C-alpha cells in the first residue's frame, strides 16, 4: 500500500503537493510541524494548535525518555493519549539532542553513551533502543538514530560519521517492528560526493521517507540550498522528503521549490516567547493577495524579492500606545481580541499570557504560510 | 435607583442572596472575584475566566498606575477594552499595595507618598487621585483609599489610622464624579469599639457598598469571624458587603453565613501556579451531593465538620503513574482532557501549560463553590 501520493507538481519548480497517510490520519504536504518537545507545544494546548491548522506535531525522544520516562508513557497508553493529541506525531530519534544537550557523550559502534542534562545519569542510546522508545511513544513517523556532525567538519570526519549513520540506519530498519512510518536521515555535511553517496545508500536500504539532516547547523543558507539541489534529485519521487530543523519563512519556500515536503522548527514558538511576531507584509497586500499572486504567477516567479512578512518586536516602546492588532490580516486569538499595546504590556509585566498569545499567533502564521504554499502549487 | 437587591435570606444564618447592578451587568451575590492584578488573570484569558463562571474580576490600581500607566489605559478606552473583558471590574484603591509592596512610604494627611517597587520612582497617592485613576480605568466598583494597618497593631495606632481613613473616605466620596459604584472600607483592627465606631462613621458618610478591611493580614481566623460578627450587624441590609482578601473555601462559607456578599483572594490562582489543586471531597459525595445536602439542611447545619474538599499537591511522586483526572467530578478543561500523570509531568518539566491548566481548575473550583453557596441559600 502506498503511504504517500504526489497529487500535483509545480510547473516552474520541483515543488509538489501530496498526501501522507499515517496511523492517525492523512496529512497534506508540504507541511510544518510545531514542536512539542516534552509532550506539549510550549504554553498552548493541543486543541489550540489544532485550531491554528496544525496537522501533525513533533516530539523529542531524548526529552521524553528522560522525563517523564517510558513507564509513564506506557501507563498512559502512548504519547497521543498522554498529551491528548489525536493527530499524527513525528518523533526524532534523540540523536540530535544527545549531541547538542548532553554533557558527556561517547560514540561507539553500538550507539551513543551520554549523560542526562537533567541529573547526570548515564544512558546508552542505540539504534534499536531509539526505535523501541519511538514505538512505545506510538509515533506515527519515527526517525532513525543518526550522528549529526557540527558545521564545519572535516571531510574525513564527515565520511566516518556518515558510514556509522548508514550502519545504524540498517539496524534501525531491522529493529522496526510496527506498521508506522520509519524515515532515514541523509548526512554528508556540505560535501557533494558524500551527500550523493549517502542518499544513495539510504535509498538502497529503503525507508518510508527521507530526511535531509545535518543542515541548519550554522552553515550559510546558500550552502543549505545547494545541498538540497544535490540530494533531492537522488530521492524517489514517491517518498516524502523532510528538511529537519528548517526554518525561516523564506527558507521554507526555497526548500519547497527544491522539492521538500516536510518541515519543523523552533523559530515560530521560540521567537514568540521572546516577543518577536510574524506579520504579513503589505507589499503583497496581505495573505490573500500573496496566495493569489503565487497561484497566478507560479511559485518560482512570485515576487519574494519584496519581503512578504515583517518581524514585529512587540517590546519596543513604539507599540506602547498602539491599539491596532498585531496583524490586522490575521485571524488568530491574539489579533482578534487584543491590541499591540496590551500584548506589549503583558510582556513588560511578565504575564505568562503574553507567551501564549504570541505563540498562537506565530504558529498560526506558519501554518497559514504552509496553506498558502499548498494553494500556490 | 437601587443598585443592590437582596432576593433571599437563609433561615438559619445571616447568609443572603442578592443581585448587584453594575455598569457592565448584573452580578449574583455572594460572588468571588478572580484576581487580574495587572489587567490579566495570570496565565489565562478573560474568555476562559468567563467560561469558568466568573461574573466579575478584580484589578489593582497600584499596579496599573505604574504599569502600563494611565496614558495607555486612556488610549485603549479604559481597562475593559484594554484587556478585552466585557463584564464588571472591581478595582482596589492602591492603598493595600502601597503598604505591602513599596519600599518607602510616608503617610501624610494629604495622602501617601511611596516609591515604586519597579523603578524607585516617587509618587503621591491621594484619595482624590485614587478615585481619578479608578474612573479612568472605568472600574464598575471603586474602593476608597484607606490605610490598612498590620496585625497586631496598638490600639492608639489603630485609632489614628482609622481616623485618617475616615477623612480620606469623605474626600473620596466628594471626588467621585461618575455613576459607577463607590465602596467604603471599614477598619479598626481587632478592637471591638473601634470596629463599631468606624463602621458607623462610614455608614453615615454613605457608600454604595461596604468592605471589611484590615482582615486576612495575619490574625487568627477566629478573630476574623469575630470582627465580622461585630461589623456586619452595623451595615445596612440593602448594601453589598465585601470581605477583602478572603480566603480559603471554608472561610468564605463562614463569612457568607455571617452576611458577607463579596470575596476576592489570590489563593486559587497562586496555589494553582504552585501545583496545589482543589478537589471536591468524597465525604459529601461530590459537588452535587454537597449542594443537595446544603439545600436540604440549611447553610448552618451543613456537615462541614468533614472536609468537603482536598488539596492535591500534583508534584508528589504518587501521581506519576496516576492516569485519573485531577478531579473526576470536575468539568474544567484540565479534568476533561488530561490526567494527573500528565499535569505532574508538565509541572516537573516547567511547561507553562501546567500553570494555566491548574489555574483554570482552581478558578473553576472557587466559582463552582460560589454557585453551590448561592444554591444553598
From TrEMBL, chains A, B:
Keywords: Glycosyltransferase, Metal-binding, Queuosine biosynthesis, Transferase, tRNA processing, Zinc. One of its GO terms (molecular function) is tRNA-guanosine(34) queuine transglycosylase activity. Residues 13-377 form the tRNA-guanine(15) transglycosylase-like domain. Pathway: tRNA modification; tRNA-queuosine biosynthesis. One of its GO terms (cellular component) is cytosol. It catalyses: 7-aminomethyl-7-carbaguanine + guanosine(34) in tRNA = 7-aminomethyl-7-carbaguanosine(34) in tRNA + guanine. Residues 245-251, 269-273 are annotated as: RNA binding. One of its GO terms (biological process) is tRNA queuosine(34) biosynthetic process. Zn(2+) binds at residues 330, 332, 335, 361. Its cofactor is Zn(2+). Substrate binds at residues 92-96, 146, 187, 214. It comes from the Bacteria. NCBIfam families: Q_tRNA_tgt, tgt_general. Catalyzes the base-exchange of a guanine (G) residue with the queuine precursor 7-aminomethyl-7-deazaguanine (PreQ1) at position 34 (anticodon wobble position) in tRNAs with GU(N) anticodons (tRNA-Asp, -Asn, -His and -Tyr). Catalysis occurs through a double-displacement mechanism. The nucleophile active site attacks the C1' of nucleotide 34 to detach the guanine base from the RNA, forming a covalent enzyme-RNA intermediate. The proton acceptor active site deprotonates the incoming PreQ1, allowing a nucleophilic attack on the C1' of the ribose to form the product. This is Queuine tRNA-ribosyltransferase. It comes from Candidatus Kerfeldbacteria bacterium CG08_land_8_20_14_0_20_40_16. The gene is tgt.
Amino acid at each position: 500500500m502506498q503511504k504517500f501520493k504526489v497529487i500535483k507538481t509545480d510547473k516552474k519548480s520541483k515543488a509538489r503537493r501530496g498526501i501522507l497517510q499515517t496511523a492517525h490520519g492523512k496529512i497534506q504536504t508540504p507541511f510544518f510541524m510545531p514542536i512539542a518537545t516534552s509532550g506539549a507545544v510550549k504554553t498552548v494546548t493541543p486543541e489550540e494548535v489544532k485550531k491554528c491548522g496544525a496537522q501533525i506535531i513533533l516530539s523529542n525522544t531524548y526529552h521524553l525518555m528522560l522525563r517523564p520516562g517510558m513507564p509513564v508513557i506506557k501507563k498512559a497508553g502512548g504519547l497521543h493519549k498522554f498529551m491528548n493529541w489525536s493527530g499524527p506525531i513525528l518523533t526524532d530519534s534523540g540523536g540530535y539532542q544527545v549531541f547538542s544537550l548532553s554533557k558527556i557523550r561517547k560514540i561507539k559502534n553500538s550507539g551513543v553513551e551520554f549523560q542526562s542534562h537533567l541529573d547526570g545519569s548515564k544512558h546508552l542510546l542505540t539504534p534499536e533502543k531509539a526505535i523501541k522508545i519511538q514505538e512505545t511513544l506510538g509515533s506515527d513517523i519515527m526517525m532513525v538514530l543518526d550522528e549529526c556532525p557540527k558545521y564545519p567538519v572535516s571531510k574525513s570526519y564527515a565520511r566516518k560519521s556518515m558510514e556509522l549513520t548508514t550502519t545504524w540506519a540498517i539496524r534501525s530498519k531491522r529493529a522496526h517492528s510496527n506498521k508506522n512510518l520509519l524515515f532515514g536521515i541523509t548526512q554528508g555535511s556540505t560535501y557533494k560526493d558524500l551527500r550523493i553517496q549517502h542518499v544513495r545508500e539510504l535509498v538502497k536500504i529503503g525507508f518510508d521517507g527521507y530526511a535531509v539532516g545535518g543542515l541548519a547547523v550554522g552553515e550559510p543558507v546558500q550552502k543549505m540550498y545547494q545541498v538540497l539541489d544535490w540530494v533531492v534529485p537522488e530521492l524517489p519521487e514517491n517518498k516524502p522528503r523532510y528538511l529537519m530543523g528548517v526554518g525561516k519563512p523564506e527558507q521554507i519556500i526555497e526548500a519547497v521549490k527544491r522539492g521538500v515536503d516536510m518541515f519543523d522548527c523552533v523559530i515560530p514558538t521560540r521567537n514568540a516567547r521572546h516577543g518577536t511576531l510574524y506579520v504579513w507584509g503589505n507589499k503583497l497586500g496581505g495573505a490573500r493577495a500573496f496566495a493569489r499572486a503565487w497561484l497566478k504567477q507560479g511559485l518560482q516567479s512570485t515576487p519574494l524579492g519584496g519581503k512578504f512578512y515583517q518581524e514585529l518586536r512587540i517590546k519596543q516602546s513604539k507599540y506602547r500606545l498602539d491599539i491596532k492588532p498585531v496583524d490586522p490580516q490575521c485571524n488568530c486569538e491574539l489579533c482578534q481580541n487584543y491590541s499591540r499595546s496590551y500584548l506589549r504590556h503583558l510582556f513588560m509585566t511578565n504575564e505568562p499570557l503574553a507567551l501564549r498569545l504570541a505563540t498562537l499567533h506565530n504558529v498560526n502564521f506558519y501554518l497559514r504560510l504552509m496553506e498558502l504554499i499548498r494553494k500556490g502549487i
